[in-house]
Amino acid sequence: MLTSPAPGLLASFQEHYDDLLQFLTRRMSDRQRAADVAQETYLKLVNIDQQAVPVLHARSFIFRVAGNLAIDALRREQRIAASHDDSERAG
């Protein structure tokens, strides 16, 4: 049986979920989009936990992962908006 060197990573996510959602809501300016990023964060943490990646400071790690995913989501939305604007101008 595989034991994770990051015990409590998922438990830490659950423990800090409200703070994480508040953090993401400030970043995303929308609670639903923030909840989507929180869900992506959880899925990423499940994958990390299954790979037995050592994590020393779970809360900091979780917020870093979530922050990076929020940035990715905002960039993706900007690209989509820019593409939409370009297609409207062209046509």
UniProtKB/TrEMBL annotation:
Name listed for the protein in its UniProt record: RNA polymerase sigma factor
Ranges for domain RNA polymerase sigma-70 region: 13-79
InterPro entries: RNA_pol_sigma70_r2, RNA_pol_sigma_r2
Domain of life: Bacteria
GO biological process: DNA-templated transcription initiation
Entries under Pfam families matching the protein: Sigma70_r2 (PF04542)
Gene3D superfamilies attached to this UniProt entry: 1.10.1740.10
Organism name: Pseudomonas taiwanensis SJ9
A GO MF label: DNA-binding transcription factor activity
